[in-house]
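so i finally got all the pieces together for this one. its two components total, 793 residues if u count the protein bits. some of the lines might not be protein, just check the labels. i wanna see the whole assembly predicted at once instead of chain by chain like last time, that was a mess tbh
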Amino acid sequence: MAEFEPKILAFLCNWCSYAGSDLAGTSRIQYPPSIRAIRVMCTARMDPQFILKAFSEGADGVMVAGCHPGDCHYVAGNYKAKRRVTLVHEILENMGIEKERLMLDWVSAAEGEKFATIVKEFTNTIKKIGPSPLRAAARQK
Amino acid sequence: MVEGNKEEPRIGVYICHCGINIAGVIDVEEVAKYAGTLKNVVLSKDYKYMCSDPGQEMIIKDIKEHNLNRIVVAACSPRMHEPTFRAACEEAGINPFLMEMSNIREHSSWVHMKEPEKATEKAKDLVRMAVAKARLLEPLEKPKVKVTDKALVIGGGIAGIQASLDLADQGFKVYLVEKSPTIGGKMAMLDKTFPTMDCSACILTPKMVDVARHPNIELLTYSEVKEIDGFIGNFKVKVEKKPRFVTDDCTGCGICADVCPVEVPNEFDLGLGTRKAIYVPFPQAVPLIYTIDQENCVGCGMCLNVCDPDAINFDSGPEEIEIEVGTIIVATGFDIFDARRKEEYGYGIYDNVINGLEFERLINASGPSGGKLLRPSDGKEPKSIGFIQCVGSRDEATNKYCSRVCCMYAIKNARLYKEKHPETDIYIFYMDIRAFGKGYEEFYKIAQDEYGIKFIRGRPGEILEDPQTKNLILRVEDTLLGETIEVDLDLVVLSVGMEPPKDAEKLQKILRISRGADGFFLEAHPKLRPIDTLTEGVFLAGTAQGPKDIPDTVAQGSAAAARAAIPMSKGEVEIEPILAEADPEKCIGCRICERVCDFGAIQIVERKARVNQALCKGCGGCAGACPTGAMQIKHFSDNQIMAMIHAAFKED
């Protein structure tokens, strides 16, 4: 059987993390082709439903990345994202989905290297846990 | 939202090769072919450079000929060329917000260079996601806001001075805020300037006076920016004026300082000289108003007794003022590298090791020693001096970047000293000499050929001190000769580099702008927008953005003024229409959004949420919290994002 290749959905804020991911690109820092990113203006835009939807569509992992605490372009959007991710962690556990499949981290516009590192690490984490329990069912639909 | 949009989407997809940047990794033809199979896609093409004139022309022509009403461009980051393709759509007669970009360069070809097949698969997914969003895009109008024709300049060094003068000369009101009691910045501390050997004060002080006299400049010294609210065109700024305890009636006569019994180290002379508790940092200070340093004043009242104009007022306290400006220029400068962090060079331990800026003060005729350079340990004239380059620059252990001025200032200082004391042995220990500016290489050549300054290529590992003579013994590998040499020196000068000021982080948070990995403020684009920040209406000047010499700093000061003048001359700017909007049909008046909003932009009127678009910043915190889906962010609506999530995994 071919090696399990995780498929991860990422939500990146426009001002810090998306800029950081662009910097990883312009610096040609290589990382696994596991993630598909959606740009939002701020991680505060994250409706918990987006994360649940991603898992129901078959995502093996969901990554949310925003500005460092105190650096949010909109004052405190990243704190809101943190609270919502904590909430979704609980929901996931109740649903039988490992909470490690949802991660939140901070990446500044200058941290191209960090962006690549967290993608690498998160991809490895998901590889260890294995495919999402919802994946097979979701992909058949 | 979708329901209202009856028009069937007719999507055109354009895959850019970006030369070989994308096409060298991703099979662009395959991606284009694949995109053509997606629902609602009418045509799909690939082209060498989509952003070029012919590329844009192709899109414009297709929109007209094929009645396209949605465009997807798969190319670089939207942070790069979104404005370009929006403008092309507008030219073709469709709303610019009916275009979506798919970032297949920064997010695929450049980061998966060794996995072309997987990069191609990823590109297909990303294009499919963009097409899914494009189907649901809505036309949007950009709201226009009025721009206050006043500017705030933070920092009164040469960058801030130049920016302020240029703006003021164009007729704009400028508030120049400087945290110390005088403007002038680091340039005021220098002796001569390379490569012309102009005396720094002679070229700077007239500009300082111009600032003070200019009817359009309001100078706020000994003041700090505490809070900034609002956005381009309408920033509300709170500035704290620290108490000077001396009023504007001060004539600068200085009799107060003569009688003041308290003597403390003068910061302006880096502690090499002293000042009184009531002081001006240097005689040409602007404004020439004395300041009582609260920490050191003993309250004896001697100054009060001698002050003729009655300018001393012990009862004053900090004052907060609020100003409204349309644009902001950040010119907060740099700090010098603290050489104590390079312990092996003994700065702060050995008496006769000083830094480059201290050397400037000591050879300066108006400096603490009257221009006489003497050894700190015994007050004797040094007969041999060594300059060590790249202290806190180009160094893995401290700062990796080059500080751009140290080679030149060391050569300049070496030449200045050698002119007066030709018998002195002067060594410069360097890694590479970077003499890149206009006239710099010529200046360096003369130092080598005519001054007999010895340039030794090598980075000293350590400095030792002879405990008796306090002389310094420096061992270094001369990498050109390939041998280790030992040099006995009377004085060592460390050519310290530039670092972001300690309070840069605080200001970053107040301004909500980014800093680079080196800690300096980050420009919006390293080449095409070197003056702008990612926050509209906020610009950078001088060393706040990165190490620079004086010519570049002045140029950037003028550039920042020119950039800031654009919205102020126009009088209005278009802002992004990415704002919140509540659907009264779905809103249940639960007030969650009202509480979540950090900008006070949401009010509940007759049990329905209503968004004040002038206050909304479009973060989407409200939409993320809304339990019914009534609150939406235009261009980032629930259904658009949900469609992208679906498309990340499946085709429709």
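Chain A has a mean pLDDT of 93.
Chain A touches chain B through 55 residues (CB under 8 Å).
anyway lmk what u think
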